[in-house]
Amino acid sequence: MAVNTKTSEAAKTALRQALAASGGNTKDKEVIAAIENLQSVNPITAPARSDTLLDSNWLLISAPNFPGGEQLADGSFSYTLGRLAFNMFQPTGLKVTLQRVSQPVFLLGNGEQRSHDIVVEFTTIDESVPKLNGIVRNQGVCQVVSDTILQVEFTGGILQPQDNQNLEEWKAVFGNQKPSSRRGFKDILMSGFLRLMFGLVPPQGMNPDSGEISFTMSRSPKGRLEILYVDEELRITRGERETVLVSERQ
């Protein structure tokens, strides 16, 4: 099906403008209308099967969807470290601000699945520690289940310093990955539940050379992701909690 390029470009421009005006909020009525308008001129009828369009490094341009976030005065989003990765990395209550969120999507060796990692670059804003620059990578895979739906599951996660980060300062904050002895009964119970249900294996220590810390998840719940729109520039998805995310190709 042919598509009017001028109409498509105008629709994408309108979406970017609506996102900018709403602070990235995809629940804003103007953003919703702009997405629906863009979908109406989309010539792709099976976006989940459009391998050449889906494969890329996607940069999130709408608001992130981690739980418990706060948008700061400068427009950035703040979270605790625990909210970014299943409460697996200590200290879970450490406050951070997100620099960018990206998702590299590429075919894996088995030829059936694609990567579904969520890469979060952050800076600490907690007054109790020096300013640190790090990366949380939630590792995942996805595969096609229909023309518009991908099945998604997570397999683990990695916490690591960014290239410009002083390693000794990083080790001083993240070197001890044992949970705090001051945790409440509810936190301990939830931690045990997650380990049992999802096969979570917490971090076993830090790589002293790289500062990297990791955990694994052997029984991740399988979720579904709907591809609402994809082309050479943009990808729009909707998760099971109806959260809509807009990303641009890098």
What does this structure look like?
This protein has 250 residues and is of the alpha+beta class. The protein contains 6 helices and 13 strands. The protein has helices spanning 5-22, 29-40, 51-54, 81-84, 167-174, 185-198; strands spanning 56-60, 70-71, 77-80, 95-105, 114-115, 118-124, 133-144, 149-161, 200-201, 213-217, 223-230, 234-238, 244-249. A hairpin with an 8-residue loop joins strand 6 and strand 7. Helix 1 packs antiparallel against helix 2. The chain is globular and about 55 Å long. The mean pLDDT is 90.
Name some characteristics of this structure.
alpha+beta, 250 residues, 6 helices, 24% helix, eight-stranded antiparallel barrel, globular
Helix content: 10-25%
**Cα distance, first to last residue?**
26 Å
Q: How many helices does DSSP assign?
A: 6
Unreliable spans: none
Overall residue-averaged pLDDT value: 90
Please tell me what the overall shape is.
Answer: globular
Question: What share of residues are in beta strands?
Answer: 25-35%
Q: Helix and strand string, N-terminal first? A: HHHEEEHEEEEEHHEEEEE
Strand order of the largest sheet: 1-4-6-7-8-11-12-13
Structural class: alpha+beta
Number of strands: 13
| Rg of Cα set | 19 Å
Q: What can be said about the biggest beta sheet?
A: 8 strands, antiparallel, barrel
